[in-house]
Amino acid sequence: MTLRFPATRIASQDEFNAWSQSERPVFDQRWLYEQQQIKDGLSAVREGTCGLCLAPTVFRADAPAEARNWREELQCDCPMHLSNRERAILHFMQSRGAIVPGRQFALTGRESQIEAKLLDWGYEVLRVPRLLGGRLRVETGWADLVICADHLHHIPPVVGFVREIARAVRAGGDLCLTVPFDVNSPITKSRVIELPRGAVESAEPLHLFGWDLLDLLRDLGFAEVAANFYWSDEFGYLGPFNMIISAVRL
């Protein structure tokens, strides 16, 4: 059993604009609260509840106040020390019923504590970090869930990479995606750099995604595409416009 994931589901920029305008007082209040936490020095160690095990825990942030990154900090006080973002991805997918026994999971990108936690739970996990010859090394329709956590913005051929993710997910399977995202931009902003010969990804960010990413997922065979904005003091999900993109393969 998991607690409900504290998120608002948004399917388009117009929907986001209407929601953000109506919720502006709430956002302002959250921002002031977080700034006060930093000012008081209370953000370094704070009590809360783990959304994965539902147990009382302590969240820790090690970065100096002037460099606070809530999304990548607030590690849970457990052996794996999952960050805000890592816990949220697993909590969110659990709340959707996407992490259950008998399902197969594929993770793109670099190793993370998400992979370690899934393995610790006893699930079958395949890590497919990069394209090889334009393909992900995974059988077509193998995965019940693909998690692409903060990796897509390093990939020059975004369309090709997402097309391969779509190929890997079985019909009715889930995609969970996190990326740097500009909530005010309808389009993705990309820059071109010269990569070393044979390189398929960059160590530097190449893309700041906009709302057209959701349209791309729809064009490549996904339905129920949405940006899920989340925030919770209790679960240690602080920070402005934390967001997980979710979709279901047609």
What order do the helices and strands come in, and which of them pair?
Blueprint: E1 7-10, H1 13-22, H2 24-40, E2 45-49, E3 56-60, E4 75-76, H3 84-95, E5 104-108, H4 113-120, E6 124-128, E7 143-149, H5 158-168, E8 169-178, E9 189-190, E10 207-208, H6 212-219, E11 222-232, E12 237-249
Parallel strand pairs: 5-6, 5-7, 7-8
Antiparallel strand pairs: 1-11, 2-3, 3-4, 8-12, 9-10, 11-12
Can you walk through the features of this model?
- The protein has 250 residues and is an alpha/beta fold.
- The protein has one domain: Rossmann fold, CATH 3.40.50.
- Helices cover 26% and strands 28% of the residues.
- The protein has six helices and twelve strands.
- It has helices at 13-22, 24-40, 84-95, 113-120, 158-168, 212-219, and strands spanning 7-10, 45-49, 56-60, 75-76, 104-108, 124-128, 143-149, 169-178, 189-190, 207-208, 222-232, 237-249.
- A seven-stranded mixed β-sheet has the order 1-11-12-8-7-5-6, with helices on both faces.
- Strand 2 (45-49) and strand 3 form a beta hairpin.
- The longest helix is centred in the first third of the chain and has 17 residues, at 24-40.
- The protein is globular, with a radius of gyration of 18 Å.
